[in-house]
Specification:
The protein is built from three helices and ten strands. It is 9% helix and 19% strand. It is mainly beta. Among the domains are: 133 residues, SH3 type barrels (Roll); 38 residues, no CATH class. The radius of gyration is 26 Å and the shape is extended.
């Protein structure tokens, strides 16, 4: 008796393939409409690779922010146009000088930060015009942002996280399962026939890779890309065989 493939089971959204978001501390972003934030504690959230800051804003509310390198508890972080050019302060990109390293850059003004949020990453302000600000991202891509998009000065804390090897497959499994990432990733030809379309018996020929059927359902649509059509076009053949006048 067959069973659903892993990619089919994940699509149903069952508890076995859902990220444990109930353990996450919350959304880490810079609140809009505040001028300062006091650092209460440095915390770790399962849903974030970077350390987070538990802060209290000047309006009395609390929240989470991405922690920069060199931060300490009790420090007052400034937010807005009146903020100084210091570590951890959040300013609009139009007020940031060229060559400054920034992180947690907003994609749209007021969204709290979308770019350069993982450990050890940062962007660099390359150029400024009257219409946009160009920032060099960690991917070496230069992206233009709105003048009023905010960014935090500094580098995200936790650099060097990938320098330590996992050493054991079990350690990697716990790391991936914390976010419900698939591990281990086996090739289809190494699986049993009941688990994957490419699965086969234990013979010398492991793979059954071939073009997927024309109307293959999700989970079976694996293999080589099937061409839209094969053979010579009838129209071209008629034109080629037509007598010349």
């Amino acid at each position: 008796m067959g069973k659903n493939l892993t990619q089919q089971a994940r699509g149903k959204g069952g508890p076995s393939f859902t990220a444990p978001s109930f353990r996450y501390l919350g959304e880490a972003k810079v609140k809009y409409g505040v001028t300062s934030a006091e650092v209460l504690d440095v915390v770790k959230s399962q849903g974030h690779l970077a350390p987070l800051l538990s802060v209290k804003y000047n309006d009395g509310t609390s929240g989470l922010m991405i922690a920069p390198e060199g931060i300490r508890t009790g420090q007052i972080l400034k937010v807005g146009p009146d903020a100084e050019l210091e570590l951890g302060n959040t300013l609009q990109l139009k007020d940031v000088p060229e060559g400054t390293t920034v992180f947690n850059i907003e994609g749209m003004p007021g969204d709290g930060g979308k770019y350069c949020r993982t450990t050890g990453t940062f962007g660099k302000v390359v150029s400024k015009t009257d219409k946009a600000i160009s920032v060099l991202l960690p991917s070496k891509r230069i992206k233009e942002f709105h003048l009023n998009c905010r960014a935090t000065l500094g580098i995200v804390a936790g650099a060097g996280r990938k320098d330590k090897p996992f050493l054991k497959a079990g350690t990697m499994a716990h790391y991936r399962n914390a976010r419900k990432k698939r591990f281990p990733q086996m090739s289809g030809s190494a699986q049993n026939a009941v688990d994957h379309p490419f699965g086969n018996k234990r013979s010398s020929r492991k793979s059954k890779a071939r073009p997927a059927p024309q109307n293959a359902p999700p989970g079976r649509n694996v293999g080589y890309i099937r061409p839209k059509r094969t053979g010579q076009s009838k129209t071209k053949a008629i034109i080629r065989e037509a007598p010349r006048r």
